[in-house]
Amino acid sequence: MVAVLVEDVSRAFGDVLAVNRISLKVERGEFVTLLGPSGCGKTTTLRMVAGLEQNTGGRISIGERVVSDPAAGIFVPPDHRQLGMVFQSYAIWPHMTVFDNVAYPLRIRRRPKAEIRERVMAALRLVEMEKFAERPAPALSGGQQQRVAIARALVFEPQVLLLDEPLSNLDARLRTQMGDEFRALQKRLGITSLYVTHDQEEAMALSDRVVVMQGGRILQIGAPEEIYQRPASRAVAAFFGSPNLLDARVTGCESEADGRFHLTVEGKGWQGHARAGERFEVGAPVLVLVRPENIQIGTQAAINGAQMAWSGRIATAIFRGPRTSVAIDTGGPRLNVEAPALLNARVGDEVRVAVPPGGAWAIRPEAGN
Amino acid sequence: MAVVAQADVSGESDVAARRAAGLPRGLAGLLSGTALGRRLGMTALFLFLAFLTLYPLAMLLYGSLHSTPPGMAGEFNLDGYREILTHENIIILVNTIGLSLAKTVPSIGLAVLLAWICARTDTPARGTLEVLITLPFFIPPILTAMAWGMLGNKQVGVINMAWQWITGSTSSPINIYSYGGIVWHMMQYSTPFLFLFIVDAFRAMDPSLEESSRMCGASRWATFRRITVLLMLPAIVSSFMLSLIRGIESFESPLFFGTPAGITVITTEIYNAINHRATPAYQYATALSFAILALMFLLVIWQWHLLRGRTFTTVTGKGYAPNITRLGRWRWVTFGFCILFFIVTVVLPVGQLAVGSVFRFFGFYSYDMLTLEHYVAVFQNTDVWRAARNTMLLGLMGASATMVLGGIVAYVTVRTRWRGRRLIDALAWLPWMMPGMVLGVGFLWAFAMLPGPIPIYGTIWALLLAYMALGTPIAVRVMSSAYHQLSFDLEECSRVHGASWWQTLWRILIALAWPSFAVGWVLTFFGIMRELSASILLYSVGSEVLSVALLKLWANGQAEQVSVIGLMMMLLVVFFRWVQIKVIKARISTL
């Protein structure tokens, strides 16, 4: 069942198209994340679903109801959309207590006092804030404010929960913890969530599906692993980390059982195998994506015989704690490698590197440029 | 968010596009269903503001060209302006600007010193000192003027008598009725006024700016000279200009200390031309008013020019813990200095009023002269009661109406993108550069020229409208800074969670902005209570206010009764100031 349906929606500010004809479907109970750099239109999209911004083209439906369709003259104001929202600043009203903040949506809906009390306490229990009910709102830490904002957004059981970068104001450790907690809560209650973030790790850890946006358009929609391991374009690939993108030429192409393709490719001084989501002609140029953590590093003997391998010299090595980032000059491409921290790499060392089977993914060079 | 910011830069086309889309950013834009109501509301707001500001301004121009008093048939000529161009008026102009400069320069120095002591040193009881130093600002100047008239009187003033008693000489070194007296009295108001601006600038400065200078090897003094002072320069320059303008508008000081000594400034010249000539010279006074308005306009333009590109953003919303200089034993010297300022500006004049109220005759202080007869006389004086009632009524109504108007104007200009909001803002700001005396003359014409069925002229409503016009710029400033502090998220969050526009306005915006409203209300109330220059032109029998009644009593030589009323007003000032400080404290703890 579809909870949010965005059809061909655009938003223009003067001549600037902040959102350019995007379409998106969120199933009931699903957690969908809009991911992209700042200015990509993800927040504008969320605000259009909320009704805080009006789309200039297309149609938005929540549940069965069309809430915005400028062509048909339909615009349902935000207060009639039955949504919950968590703002980046949390927007905890400073003149109220925690209880009053969470009770606000129920009081606005004129629910009986006893019911308000019960549901507010239940919501606060969900986020483990029931002890703070009578606290004045300004006397809360960032993490606590975030919990209150979530409780407030959930208290009247909204059709959809909207979240606008809710974790970006927290420090790194708390961010991970709150994110995991929220994901567990979301799964348990089956809340349909539309989430906006610019942090790719957050997006992958939380979401059922990720919508990658850039320049007001959707680049790709898919499960986190798919977006990460099998990007549709160079832009999507480059959005996560600093991948190795190797120029190559197709020397063979076979279909596989799962509908994808198995390519044999040849680059400057190397050759190997890569998988692809589409059919390539023999001789066609191709970009081979190899994630830095998928490259193995070792001595000459250990790697010899691997099908996609290079010899090279370590140009830089940066120890990062859990791992070591190494750049290797191979004479051909320069490779970024995320090596285990135990690797005793010194600049200037001769090493041999290889990509294991399944570690390479091929995309069209022009796509996404 | 970046998209929104980017679109903001593109300016008018962006606004137009948003309007076409029918949904600008922000809460108010969500009123998409009531476009007609919004347009009607904006028109009504515009008309009312225009009546308060543009209309008297236009009437000023009309009156300056009109040969007869308001409401009489006459012809149009340039006689008024021809009359301005005399040698006497050059002296008056030089007096006006010279006196204002003469009080502004030492006031700035004093204010910077006091602000530094209160904000950046470890002087004891700084919080209390700050309240004491700013207290004179809230006392109606007419009260201290009268008190200093008694303190500094050449024959029977307490200061001269004390001098003669101590030294045994018969000379009187102090004469308050002089250039020095005017400057002295004006300084008592401009110093706390400047202090309020400068202490905030001192406090809002990011201490890391100074710390990084120290880390670069600059000494404490070099840092103060090269970093602190230069960062403060925009605040100092803008408060200097404000103080200069206030000095030119000043009426009480030159009226009380200049007129007896034959020193005339522009405001007193306008006043004399209307009230103290055999036939009131309306055309001349109006032409003079228009001329002073032009002068103000030039000063304001100059101020903008000076400040262009110099508004350093050292002021942020953050509460910094400023660098504190440890003074050691010297902190008692600075403490004493602040107390001395308080004694001179508050204790001396208030003490004089208290003493003056209980002796039979002003200047004759002995036990057998002690009496309560003046209190009895004042409480039996129906004119005084009526004036007190009028002042209270005007204060309550005027402060409430002005703040509501200011709240609406600020909402329209800060929280919406409605068409015409800049015009509304400009209209509401216009009285900022109009001296009370000039606005009074403008309203004199404006009310007299109203068609018959609208009888405002000579009633209490005339004063109310004038007070509203004078108070609106401050009301708008207070309310817009309150709205600026509230993020749009707070409103939008309320909308998404089911509250309508009106519910959000009431439960979120007003609920959060009311402490500022209260603070602004008290400020406006003080403003009305102390107002003299517009009142003196617009009152008529039955609608006198306290300041006018005081002036009349003073003119009749009843300094003793003046002291009684002054003391009562002082109590009121202290009470309201106390309430205001309580409210500010409460607000700081909740926001």
Q: How would you characterize the overall build of this protein?
A:
The complex is a heterodimer of chains A (369) and B (591). The two termini of chain A are 35 Å apart. Chain A is globular and about 75 Å long. Chain A has 2 domains: 2-235, Rossmann fold, CATH 3.40.50; 236-363, OB fold (Dihydrolipoamide Acetyltransferase, E2P), CATH 2.40.50.100. Chain A has 369 residues and is of the alpha+beta class. Chain A has 9 helices and 21 strands. In chain A, the strands form 4 sheets. Chain A has a 6-stranded mixed beta sheet with strand order 7-8-9-3-10-11, with helices on both faces. A 5-stranded antiparallel beta sheet of chain A has the order 2-1-4-5-6, with helices on one face. In chain A, a hairpin with a 3-residue loop joins strand 17 (309-319) and strand 18. Chain B is mainly α and 591 residues long. In chain B, 73% of the residues lie in helices and 0% in strands. The A-B interface holds A 12-16, 18, 38-39, 41, 43-44, 50-54, 56, 70, 75, 77-79, 81-85, 87-91, 93-95, 104-105, 108-109, 136, 138, 152-153, 156, 162, 216 and B 1-4, 6-7, 10, 13-14, 16-18, 21-23, 25, 30, 32-33, 487, 489-490, 492-500, 503, 507-508, 511-512, 590-591.
Spatial shape of chain B: globular
| Count of spatially separate domains of chain A | 2
Report low-confidence residues of chain A grouped into runs of 5 or more: none
Which word captures the global form of chain A?
A: globular
Provide the β-strand percentage band of chain B: under 5%
What percentage of amino acids of chain A are in beta strands?
Answer: 35-45%
Order of helices and strands of chain B: HHHHHHHHHHHHHHHHHHHHHHHHHH
**Helix-strand topology string of chain A:** EEEHEEEEHHHEHEHEEHHEEEEEHEEEEE
Mean pLDDT over the residues of chain B: 81
End-to-end CA span of chain B? 25 Å
Short description:
The complex is a heterodimer of chains A (369) and B (591). Chain A contains nine helices and 21 strands. Chain A has helices at 42-50, 98-108, 113-126, 142-154, 172-189, 200-206, 224-229, 234-239, 300-303, and strands spanning 2-13, 16-27, 31-35, 57-62, 65-69, 74-75, 83-86, 160-164, 193-197, 209-214, 217-222, 244-255, 261-267, 270-276, 285-290, 296-298, 309-319, 323-329, 334-340, 350-354, 360-363.
